[in-house]
Amino acid sequence: MALAGTLEEFLELDNVSELSSSPLPSELAYLQYTSGSTRFPRGTMISQSAVMANLHAIFNHGFCLTPEDRFCSWLPFYHDMGLVGIVLGCVATQRSVDYLPTWDFAMRPRLWLKLMSMNRATVSFSPPFGYTLCSRRLRASDSQDLDLSAWRVAGVGAEMIHPEALADFATALAPAGFNPKAFLPCYGMAECSLAVSFAQVGGGASIDVVDIDKLARDGQASPLIESALATKGRAFVGCGRPLPGYEMEILGGGGQSLPDRHCGRIHLRGPSIMSGYFGNVVASREVLSADGWLDTGDIGYRVDGVVYITGRAKDLMIIKGRNIWPQDLEYLAEQEPEVRPTDASAFSISDEHGEEVAVLVVQCREPDPRKLLRLSEKLHQVILVEFGIHCLVELVAPHTLPRTSSGKLSRSAARKEYIERVGSQTAEVVMDRFASQGRRERVEAVRVAS
After folding, report:
1. Are residues 291 and 324 in the same domain?
2. pLDDT tens track of the chain, all 450 residues?
């Protein structure tokens, strides 16, 4: 029996003469709601045995916990990485954790590093944007006051990992003794309790550079040949091999198992898979097979057992026959000094002829209209050069882009709000830009939201 209420109501309950019986392994431990970045949040039903199996695998095989380990975290408790990896993990392993409120980290990310340095913490995890935020906010003199030499596990996951972000962090914190080999890329999701795979502890981030044209055209992650100077490369970070007990399959559009270096939909089966989505039988059947396989909705490929994540299936944009990932467009925008990490959202819309057109919405604090115009033109040109596609660029005021409860950008909500803002202008802008004349006219509409 489950009870919910206020603290006062709890204190008014009658005393019991004996403790209730322990829950059965198959009973529900908790509901973990998905982030809702690609669709409406759903409550994953995690059983007692599922979460305990995941905790055992994470701490014994994921990063090999030692008696000397001390944790540090700013992750919110309602996020699966914060709940399972930190709260439940430290309770299960009886390890100390220094906690920094999430809001404090967002305002002053240096506090995270200062706490790590002060207490000689050895384990801490963050989504990639946390590392980017730190490296951007740090002054050159800041790292001289820190000692991060004890940091042996710098976990990174929960979203796409750009190797450049990790390199920037490592460079900025090198004077503080941070070892880039401490980076531990991982892959997981709420539907699997938390973690699915880990890279090798102490090995740092493993980078695979592939031919971006073959990847976009054929879905094949062919290694970039160094002699092919004219070929563009795309770097992916390896997220390691699945934890013990997990099975992984990369499936093509026809449900066939794909060989190494072929992108497909990732399917998983293992001891920490959810029981289903709470109160949603239809959605549960869409992703869970009768024999226990979970369709993750993620796209990726494998090389010698190591999995590389390329994006979410629902996010994939197909522009002029090319597979374009929104996070790649967003990352280009975030490299501009006027744009902060996670302040760009990319998606596609359809024109009157049913053709997909890329859209990039960027939050920007720059008030000068001339600088905004130059930024818009630069983004358009960079995307054209890098990916060979035209893109509608909209600059908006801060706090315009919708986010999930865990702070992730919601591309589906951003797309909906964009269409509502531009209304009937969408078709007109698209037609102007993709005019069927001998040359294409570039029409850039810059809107500065008040």
Report:
1. no
2. 556 788 888 888 888 888 778 888 999 999 888 765 555 678 899 999 999 999 999 999 998 899 999 999 999 888 888 899 999 999 999 999 999 998 899 889 999 999 999 999 999 999 988 898 888 888 878 888 899 999 999 999 877 888 888 999 999 999 999 999 999 999 999 999 999 999 999 999 999 998 888 888 888 888 887 645 555 788 899 999 999 999 999 999 888 999 999 999 999 999 999 999 998 999 899 999 999 999 998 999 999 999 999 888 888 888 877 788 888 888 888 888 888 878 898 888 887 767 788 899 998 888 888 888 889 888 988 888 888 888 889 888 888 888 776 567 788 888 888 888 876 554 444 444 444 323 333 333 334 333
Parallel, antiparallel, or unpaired for β 294-303 and 306-312?
A: antiparallel
Boundary residue ending a domain (250, 283, 314): 314
Number of domains in the chain: 2
Q: Are residues 305 and 321 in the same domain?
A: no
> The CATH number of the domain where 387 resides is what?
3.30.300.30
- The beta-strand segments (E) located in 238-330 are 241-242, 247-251, 264-269, 276-277, 294-303, 306-312, 317-319, 322-324
Range of the domain at 392: 316-433
In terms of domains, do 292 and 329 share one? no
Q: Name the residue among 167, 179, 294 with its Cα closest to residue 237.
A: 167
Q: Which two tokens stand for residue 163?
A: 């190797």
What is the rounded radius of gyration, in angstroms, for the C-alpha atoms of the chain?
23
Q: What pTM does this model have? A: 0.79
Residues 290 and 382 both lie in one domain: no
Same domain for 85 and 214: yes
Q: State the Cα–Cα distance between residues 324 and 347, nearest whole angstrom.
A: 10
